[in-house]
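Table 4 source record.
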Amino acid sequence: MVRFITYITCIVFGVLASKAQVKSEEIMINNQVIQLPGTLTYTSEKQPLLIWVHGSGGVNRDGNQPQYIKQFREAVNKENLAFFSYDKRTANPNNVRFIQEDGIYFSDFVSDIKEVIHHFKNDKRFSEIILIGHSQGSLIAMLALDNVAKYISLAGAGETIDKTLVRQISKQSPEFGKLTEQYIKELMTTGEIKEVNPNLMSLFAKQNQPFIKSWITVNPIEEIKKVAIPTLIINGDKDFQVLINDAENLHKAKPDAELVIIKNMNHVLKHIEKDEDNMKSYMSPDFKISEELITTIVEFVKK
């Protein structure tokens, strides 16, 4: 009986000690006037540091409502990997004035992640830096790999964004898909879209047009060919935003990369059994992150 109680006590205190080992730091990184506040977590020194590169939209360090980045952070910390994520420039209210004054271009996000890497590149607490580019961040990360040991493309497009936009919108409405195609052609030819249908205004509003144009000019197929470090390409088979074909296209362009298609994982990295839960998971933290995703990344990082 005494031995049993001792065993239970060891388990309980072992769990508590394990939780206590995670160290957390709030870090402010400045890219000139742009503020990129983030959270660094790690369990010990000399660990690889994973840095998250955000997808499109105003994504914060935790992944907003579905909390997929927070779930990812907690999962990799348990595997003794350090992790840093920050509030994207479009997620921080302190940056709004500067964005309104100066506009925003695709290269701005590349500049941001380069500044983050610069902050950590000489930090002796970490053995190496690994970039994880999610969705739009897959392409952003490809352009910022100096001082990076490994690169992970997570749900990254395998085509220029104009093709993705036409495909996604056409799926919802063939009529608006054709209109999107016309708008993109006008934008790339004349530099602006003069009149925009109200139903597409959220995408093609005047203030968004320079950014879209700058994004279209960067081709992920050409950029991934230039990547000279170990690369892992991941996509989920429940992802309806970025398709398996996108991951396969990236792999064809870089055949020495590792390609993994994860069963029942959607675009926000949640494990989805029922199709009707796919969209629900975008709005709720109750859906768990894919365990296979974590296993795949941990194995790649620790090779």
